[in-house]
Amino acid sequence: MNMTRTLFTLTLSLFLSLNIFAATELKTKLEALENVARIEALESSFAEKYVLRVSQPLDHSNPAKGQFEQRVVVCHAGFDRPTVFVTEGYGGRYALSSRYREELSTLFNANIVFVEHRYFLESTPEPLDWAYLTAENSAFDLHHVRLLLKDIYPGKWISTGVSKGGQTTMIYRAFFPDDVDISVPYVAPLCRGVEDGRHEGFLRKVGTGSERRQILSFQIEALKRKPTLVPMMEKLASEKKMQFRAPMAEIFDYCVLEYSFAFWQWGTSVKLIPPLTAADSTIFEHLVDICDPDYFSENQSENTFFVQAARELGYYGYDIRPFRKYLSLRQSGGYLARLMVPQSAGPVAFDPALYHKIYNYLKDNDPKMIFIYGEVDPWSAVHAPLFKGKINQQQYFQPRGSHRTRINTMPDDLKTQIIEQLTAWLSES
Fold first, then answer.
1. Contact 72, 42 (CB under 8 A)
2. What is the pTM of this model?
3. Residues 184 and 41 in one domain
4. Per-residue DSSP letters for 165-221?
5. pLDDT on residue 10
6. What's the pLDDT at 59?
7. Could you report the per-residue pLDDT of 234-292, keeping only the tens digit for each?
8. pLDDT at 108
């Protein structure tokens, strides 16, 4: 008994010593990196987790323009493990949580290197100059981080992101095809215009006829009740200190137009639509639950994205024909620039060059990429193209899947197929 206890104590001591050594080894390696400052340890279910501030050029084509600090989170599973490179399209505060896990890292016991997108939250340059918020600069940001950590994590790298983060995954792969081994963009749109035009047709066909009729009937009913619902929206806006660049009656119209897109994007059930005879308060609460007017306000946290959408990423428009006689609006075109792009950005013109770069890269190459989409998600109307003869580029659509579609939400047969393909690629020498 004593011998067993002694062996157990020695084994435990050795295990703890190795863990302490490993922790010290990673932190030492991170501290030795150039252009990295303020390394902070974070609580996590990973063996170790750190948040770093990486110094990045404002303009990678001209470093003399200045620098800014970009927030990067490193979650450590092991030096011999693959690394999931999260190309976040927005802010990265949520990645600081001790509970943060990413789907691919869980599936393959992988490290995570998470990069907050430039011009969001703590990765915002000061003073703010919108000229350097470009897709190319964001790709070079990721390339810089990849080069910094390549010797620490020499195994396979998988780039991934969700929604705008998935767009960033595609952008990064098009600019730096050899930086990663595999890419998995989730629900990632590839728009060809600031109001692409394909979303409207998608919404006229998505789901069942009965579902579409229920949604349309609710929108029309809400518009019919504008005399009582617009004051409710004015009161809500005042309470939340929202600011708008259009009269409240027009903001109300935009919320109704947005309703069908948002409804399908998040996979809402038509069972949640109140009856058309419901009280004004019930109709209003459901409308703003699906489309909060804050979406169209000018003092919100996502206005950085709207600059990118208007300049390079593209977006969607609205079909106002079914509602024309009820609207205060004469037309909805140009709403993004008129309502949502920050005025400090000045006039922003859309350049389709990024769309063509990604499109041509996918057409002319066959990178190991798996695209994940939801069948009823309006963003799937502008899914990445899939060309004939491609072996490595694969697309999967979850039946009735929304913008919340992930590998783990897929039907079992598709989920198995995706995981087996990724496993095979990760196993290649």
1. no
2. 0.93
3. yes
4. HHHHHHHHHHH-TTS-SEEEEES----SSTT-SHHHHHHTTSS-HHHHHHHHHHHHH
5. 46
6. 98
7. 999 999 999 999 999 999 999 999 999 999 999 999 999 999 999 999 999 999 999 99
8. 98
What's the confidence (pLDDT) of residue 81? 98
**What is the pLDDT at residue 319?**
97
Domain boundary among 345, 372, 392: 345
Residues of the chain whose pLDDT is less than 70?
1-23
Position 11 scores a pLDDT of 44
Q: What is the rounded CA–CA span in Å between residue 358 and residue 141?
A: 18
CA 280 to mean position of chain CA atoms: 35
Of 75, 152, 65, 140, nearest in space to 113 by CA: 75
Of 69, 211, 191, 83, the closest CA to residue 141 belongs to 69
Same domain, 361 and 251: no
* 243 and 303 together in one domain: yes
User: What is the side-by-side strand order in the sheet with 111-115?
Assistant: 36-41, 48-57, 67-76, 111-115, 83-87, 157-162, 182-186, 369-374, 393-398
* pLDDT tens readout for residues 167-198: 999 999 999 999 999 999 999 999 999 999 99
Omega before 231 within 30 of 0, i.e. cis: no
Burial of 189 (0-12, 13-18, 19+ CB in 10 A): buried
Read off φ and ψ for residue 68, nearest 5 degrees: -145, 165
Residues 28 and 39 in one domain: no
End-to-end CA, the chain:
47
Estimate the share of the chain in helix, then strand, then coil, as percent rounded to the nearest 5.
Answer: 50, 15, 35
Question: What are 369's two structure tokens?
Answer: 């990429």
Q: Tell me: do 92 and 143 sit in the same domain.
A: yes
Give me the number of domains the chain comprises.
3
Is residue 65 domain-shared with residue 6, that is, in the same domain? no
Q: Which of 403, 410, 77 is nearest to 261 (CA)?
A: 403
**Are residue 214 and residue 275 in the same domain, yes or no?**
yes
Q: Are residues 259 and 361 in the same domain?
A: no
Q: Where does a domain end: 298, 321, 345? A: 345
The DSSP element (H or E) to which 37 belongs, if any, is strand 36-41
Domain span at 4: 1-32
